[in-house]
Amino acid sequence: MNFYLVVRNMKYDCLIIGAGLVGLATAYQILASDPHLKIIICEKENEPAFHQSGRNSGVVHSGVYYKPGSLKAKNCLEGRAELLRFAKERVKVQEIHKVILAQTERETAYLLELEKRAQANGVFGAEIIGPERLKEIEPFAKGAQALYLPHCQIIDYPAVAKELCQEIQKRGGEISFGEEIQEFKEETVLGSKREYAPKVVVNCAGLYSDKIAKACLGSAEHQILPFRGEYYLLREEKRSLVKGLIYPVPDPQFPFLGVHLTPMVNGKVEAGPNAILALAREGYRRTDFCLRDISDVLSYSGFWKMAGKYWKAGMYEMARSLSKRLFVKDVQRLLPALEESDLIPGGAGIRAQVVKKDGLLMDDFCIREDLRSIHVVNAPSPAATACFAIGKTIAEKALLRLHS
Question: ∠ CA 109-115-349 to the nearest 5 degrees?
Fold first, then answer.
């Protein structure tokens, strides 16, 4: 008997695509509200959090950067609290401080704006400090002024993902690894292993969420462009130069935070990332190239409009990717004592960033939906921090469909 025929048209209340943190948190929240529902997560990789969720520096974001009232601000604050509650006694969480350093008058002016956002977003204890106080907190850092955040955390996000998998399975949910969703039909979803008949489809596919949304909804309002962020690691003997999170004042024109220094729960310290357009959606190395992916980029009008707006910044990011000397120069703006020999190659991650047709980078979370499907189209940082809040929002939307 053909095994495929036996398992085809498997009926589920909800099929979730993607076992990153948002997909896992969505399943967790659905089952927390209704444990009788039949839920399956389909993940094309052989483990959870393989891409964005597991390739970041593990910062639990405080909410200081986000426009008050935005989805990022709301979900970051709510999700952060629930993430820390879930992680307590489950995974390693380290309390840490953060400083955002301003070097120029222009950066100092924006630092004051960040302080206002911190206050509006309820970030506890945020304050502007001068060089003397900065010296006490970060003896080797340099800044004309700094925004000091005393109550921050770093966490092991892949460990959070594994804990979520266990909780989902305890509650009767299923997770199918190595299962890539390939086609949507009128009432069924075809995977590489099985065919499913879900009542609701939830798309948390990260780098491929725009493609799945288009296949499911029949149209695409936006397109994801993959931006690679490359990291260096500080040599072990230089880690003591960094006491907490050390960030520059970000360029308000971009949704990227700039090269920064980040201690991690494993004891290492990262420097980075930059942000350059990758030549493949999963292009973690400079040599990775996918003709289909780059053709999608080059045929998208929004890319060319973005390139026209930001070509100078883009060229600088590319130069910094190719030149360690240039990369170190930017790190030295934060920590002058570091030398080129103090940094060794680290890893890389890919940020799934929606670029709109007008060439602007979408600066907030974005969800599209119809009667039978919900699509998380744009969920870059701080989605890992906010995953429980985003998952709750999606769960509420799914439950309305399932209980109607």
Answer: 90
